[in-house]
Amino acid sequence: MADVRVTCINKVPRDNPYEGITHLGGTGGGGWRWTRQQVIDSINAKTNTFYTLVGGKRADIGVVRGPSGEYVRTYADEKWDDNLLALPECHS
């Protein structure tokens, strides 16, 4: 199992705080970009763990079930947080 750092996201539309993340990505391994569903499947299968590192503080990414299905969210300091939405845009 790999522990993978997420450094960017894509969401449509980008400026809408209520629309979902479509892709997550990072620079590890020469750069990567996965769909949200690929990340969810990997977390659920326990094949990878994902995290963000903002201001020197690690936040693990977990899967949360909402009214519209599963989505990803960060968890740090014993609470769920939305810091994924603050990450910059991934470039294809």
Question: Would you mind describing this structure in some detail?
Answer:
The chain is mostly beta strands. The protein contains 1 helix and 8 strands; from the N terminus they run ββββαββββ. The protein has one helix spanning 36-45; strands spanning 2-5, 8-11, 21-26, 32-35, 48-54, 57-66, 69-76, 79-81. Strands 1-5-6-7-8 form a 5-stranded mixed β-sheet. Strand 3 (21-26) and strand 4 form a beta hairpin. The longest helix is centred in the middle third of the chain and has 10 residues, at 36-45. It starts with a strand and ends in an 11-residue tail after the last strand.
Number of H- or I-type helical stretches = 1
Number of strands: 8
Order of helices and strands: EEEEHEEEE
Radius of gyration: 12 Å
Give the CA-CA distance, first to last residue.
Answer: 25 Å
Proportion of residues in extended strands: over 45%
Largest β sheet strand count, sense and barrel closure: 5 strands, mixed
Question: How do the strands line up in the largest sheet?
Answer: 1-5-6-7-8
Shape label: globular
Unreliably modeled segments: none
Assembly state (oligomeric): single chain
Helix content: 10-25%
Secondary-structure-based class equals: mainly beta
Summed over residues and divided by their number, the pLDDT gives a mean of 87
